[in-house]
Every structure is written in C-alpha cells, then in structure tokens.
C-alpha cells in the first residue's frame, strides 16, 4: 500500500507529530511486545502514520487508517496509555460522582440503575469509568482537587444535595460536566439530564382523583434535592382540597416513618402518592399492618418504576422514569462535551403512569 506522508515533506522526514506512543514506560516492553515499528511494518507505512491513526488525526486517508487498524489487530499492539495522555491531553476515563454514602448507593435501585447504564454506554468505547462517592465536605474538597488535577476527561454528577456549587466550579475550570437531575443551584452553562418530575407527579395525583379519591396525601422526597422539590410541586399543582405532606428521603425506612405519621395526621386519607417506589412499598406494609386494604381503603401510587414496584404486595402503580435512558444520555453528552466545538443543552425526559393493582 502506498505510504501516506505530510504534503511537501520528504519520505520519512522528521515531522511535527506527537512523540511515539511506544515511548519507554515504567514497565518496559519485552522483546516480544509489538511496537509502533511492528505495526508500521505490517501495514506498510511509517511509524508517524501509525501515530496519526492512533491519535485520530484527520490527516489519514480511510484506506491507510483501515490498513493500520488491521495491523494493530493482527499484532496485538496496545498503545502506551501514559504516552498517549501526554500527546492527546486525554486520560480516556470519566468520573461518576455520587453524593451519597455507599450503603445508600447499593440500596437505591435508581442509583444502581444509573451506574449500570453509564457502564453499559461506556462498554463500547475505550473510556474507563471511575466511581467516586462523596459523603463529607472533606470528601468533596479531595474530589475537586482530583478532578481539577486532570485525572479524568470529565465528570458525571448524580444525587446532588442543596445549593451545590461544585458543578459550576468545575465548569469554570474547563472540566466537562453533566449532571443527573436539574441542580437546585445555578444552572447557567450547565448540562443536565432529568426526568419530567413535575409532570409525572401531577399525572399521578390527578389519576388518584380521577379514581374518585378525595383525600390524597403525599410522602414527598427530600427538600434539598431537585427530584424531591419537583415531585412535591407536581402534587401541589394537582391535589384537590387541603394538601397533606410528610417528607422522606427516598428510602424504605423513611417511607415507613412517613406513612405512620400520615395515618396519625390524616386518618381519613384514601390515597397516597409517594415520591419513590421504595417509600411507596414501605407505605403498603404500614397500611397492611394498620388494617387498611389497598386499594379498597387506600390507593397508593409511587414514582420510579423500579423492580420493587413489581415485587410489592400488591404490585405498585407508579410513574415510570427512564433511568437507563437518563444514564446513557448523560454519558453520551459527556463524551460529546469532551470534544471541543460540540456544545450540549439540558434534556428533560418524559415520564408516564404504569397502572398496577395498588391503584
């Protein structure tokens, strides 16, 4: 195959290409380890051309790129990641930052769904996932130093609490960021992917009234998270009569406590909208313990449509939010944002009601 060279430059003349990607590394290759020269010899091109292909240079024809990629596959050549980072200024890794303790992560099907979908979206790329948990202010300071230190190409931020300033500071430092859920803090210049929490909660509350329920209470989410705030707003927008609100934190334990408080405050309630399926499943158990029949005496609707909605007794009517699509879209937007000249906009994904036996 004919060699491809820089126009106007003699064959094998020195070029301004980046340093060779098989530069010595802490673990030096053995004599049998394929190098750039090995790939170049098999492909019939110069090592500079192999370097261009590996660095995704546009100065390579499709035919030459195909030949080099075939040679890489045939030889089993693996680029030196450290040298590649020096050349491209990319680490081929992204951070998924979850602002929750580990116990909450593994007990929350929404968060595990996000982790799974992000991992699946990255599986077809050369980008590695770095999972990071943030529990304290000290954790957040260490996290920010790590992200600013150039160890990753960007960050996905999930389950933010309060008026979070971290996304804006990272964007201001030039770090690509995509947030899962609309932040409660400033959103100017931020890219986020969220579900239509207001619309979903409004739909659930109206559905309960359409069933003829006259006293609809809610177990709301935490007031320091956008999902909690927006789902409460949807309930308040649609509820008829006096609102009855008790807050939880999206966990099963908080749903148990909240349902018990609701029965004390409003013993005549005939419907409950819970802002998460875990809280709704806990509410079902409390209602059963109190002798209330579901849905005959009290209808219950949750939010999320996770596996717990199917396993509950009775199966839970709930608002479906596309968790896996959210994780995939966040990942794709982050990978695009890491490429200069590819601006992105926030996205709101639709929700829908899934009717089962609890309402």
Automatic annotation (TrEMBL):
<feature type="region of interest" description="Disordered">
    <location>
        <begin position="1"/>
        <end position="33"/>
    </location>
</feature>
<keyword id="KW-0238">DNA-binding</keyword>
<dbReference type="InterPro" id="IPR010982">
    <property type="entry name" value="Lambda_DNA-bd_dom_sf"/>
</dbReference>
<dbReference type="Pfam" id="PF00356">
    <property type="entry name" value="LacI"/>
</dbReference>
<dbReference type="InterPro" id="IPR000843">
    <property type="entry name" value="HTH_LacI"/>
</dbReference>
<feature type="domain" description="HTH lacI-type">
    <location>
        <begin position="34"/>
        <end position="88"/>
    </location>
</feature>
<keyword id="KW-0804">Transcription</keyword>
<dbReference type="InterPro" id="IPR046335">
    <property type="entry name" value="LacI/GalR-like_sensor"/>
</dbReference>
<dbReference type="GO" id="GO:0003700">
    <property type="term" value="F:DNA-binding transcription factor activity"/>
</dbReference>
<dbReference type="Pfam" id="PF13377">
    <property type="entry name" value="Peripla_BP_3"/>
</dbReference>
<dbReference type="InterPro" id="IPR028082">
    <property type="entry name" value="Peripla_BP_I"/>
</dbReference>
<dbReference type="GO" id="GO:0000976">
    <property type="term" value="F:transcription cis-regulatory region binding"/>
</dbReference>
<feature type="compositionally biased region" description="Pro residues">
    <location>
        <begin position="21"/>
        <end position="32"/>
    </location>
</feature>
<protein>
    <submittedName>
        <fullName>LacI family transcriptional regulator</fullName>
    </submittedName>
</protein>
<keyword id="KW-0805">Transcription regulation</keyword>
């Amino acid at each position: 195959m004919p060699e491809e060279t820089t126009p106007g430059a003699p064959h094998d003349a020195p070029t301004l290409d980046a340093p060779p990607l098989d530069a010595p590394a802490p673990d030096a290759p053995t004599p049998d380890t394929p190098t750039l020269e090995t790939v170049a010899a098999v492909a019939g091109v110069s090592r500079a051309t192999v370097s261009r292909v590996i660095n995704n240079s546009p100065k390579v024809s499709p035919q030459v790129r195909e030949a080099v990629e075939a040679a890489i596959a045939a030889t089993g050549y693996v680029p030196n990641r450290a040298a590649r980072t020096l050349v491209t200024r990319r680490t081929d890794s992204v951070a998924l930052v979850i602002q929750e303790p580990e116990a909450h992560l593994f007990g929350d099907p929404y968060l595990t769904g996000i982790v799974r979908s992000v991992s699946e979206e990255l599986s077809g790329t050369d980008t590695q996932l770095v999972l990071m948990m943030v529990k304290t202010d000290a954790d957040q300071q260490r996290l920010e130093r790590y992200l600013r230190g150039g160890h990753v190409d960007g960050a996905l931020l999930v389950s933010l609490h309060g008026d979070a300033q971290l996304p804006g500071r990272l964007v201001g430092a030039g770090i690509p960021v995509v947030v899962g859920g609309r932040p409660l803090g400033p959103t100017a210049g931020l890219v986020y992917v969220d579900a239509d929490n207001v619309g979903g909660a409004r739909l659930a509350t109206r559905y309960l009234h359409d069933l003829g329920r006259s006293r609809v209470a809610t177990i709301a989410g935490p007031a320091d998270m956008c999902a909690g705030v927006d789902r409460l707003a949807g309930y308040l927008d649609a509820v008829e009569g006096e609102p009855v609100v008790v807050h939880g934190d999206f966990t099963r334990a908080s749903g148990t406590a909240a349902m018990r408080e609701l029965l004390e405050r409003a013993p005549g309630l005939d419907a409950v909208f819970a802002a998460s399926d875990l809280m709704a499943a806990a509410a079902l158990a409390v209602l059963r313990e109190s002798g209330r029949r579901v849905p005959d005496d009290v209808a219950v609707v949750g939010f999320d449509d996770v596996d717990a909605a199917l396993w509950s007794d009775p199966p839970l009517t709930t608002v479906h939010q596309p968790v896996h699509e959210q994780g995939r879209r966040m990942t794709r937007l982050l990978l695009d944002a890491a490429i200069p000249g590819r601006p992105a906009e926030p996205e709101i994904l639709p929700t829908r009601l899934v009717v089962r036996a609890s309402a």
